[in-house]
Design goal:
Elements: E1 13-19, H1 30-46, E2 50-57, E3 60-66, H2 74-89, E4 107-110, H3 114-130, H4 145-150
Antiparallel strand pairs: 1-3, 1-4, 2-3
Helix pairs in contact: 1-2
Length: 172
């Protein structure tokens, strides 16, 4: 059995990559992305956290969460989100009573400082272009980019070229 070490820090911000099992494109349609949105909303209503940035691609998700000051349990939140989505997308289970929607684990990165946060926000928003899904960041429908533009974090035409700070970052 693997011995994973996660940095559980109350009130911290984390970057996550969560991947579908065998990279199956479960989130290639609006109705499936809506199931994911609902799972996030239900989980957030019971166990609050803030989403600073998110992108949903057909076979994986990247996001940054900020946890409440007295809470460090991001794993429990992911477990709930994954369970809710899985129960609605695929009722079949394997011999371990697992559904086939998600990889068993996820990757997290503890955000260290403002620069680290900015680089990961940029990575999230540029990801659909990097994967060749769209030519412009603003064309991807399942991203927090439009909200970030409204907040003044980016100009609307941001991402015409890959930002130098994220060139070479591979967080898949």
């Amino acid at each position: 059995m693997s011995n994973y070490r996660r940095a559980y820090i109350p009130g911290a911000a984390y970057f996550f990559t969560v991947v579908t099992r065998h990279r199956k494109p479960w989130f290639d349609r609006e109705e499936r992305v809506e199931i994911l949105r609902e799972a996030f909303q239900k989980t957030m209503s019971k166990r609050p956290f803030r989403i600073d940035a998110i992108v949903v691609l057909p076979n994986h998700i990247h996001c940054i969460w900020k946890l409440p000051e007295d809470d460090k349990d991001f794993s429990g939140r992911w477990r709930e989100i994954k369970k809710m989505v899985s129960s609605r997308l695929d009722a079949r289970t394997n011999e371990r009573n697992e559904r086939s929607v998600w990889q068993r684990r996820f990757w997290e990165h503890l955000i260290r400082d403002e620069s680290d946060w900015r680089n990961h926000v940029d990575y999230i928003h540029y990801n659909p272009v990097r994967h060749g899904l769209v030519r412009r960041v603003s064309d991807w429908p399942w991203s927090s980019f439009a909200r970030a533009v409204e907040r003044g974090w980016y100009p609307a035409d941001w991402g015409a070229t890959e930002p130098p700070a994220i060139a070479g970052m591979d967080l898949e």
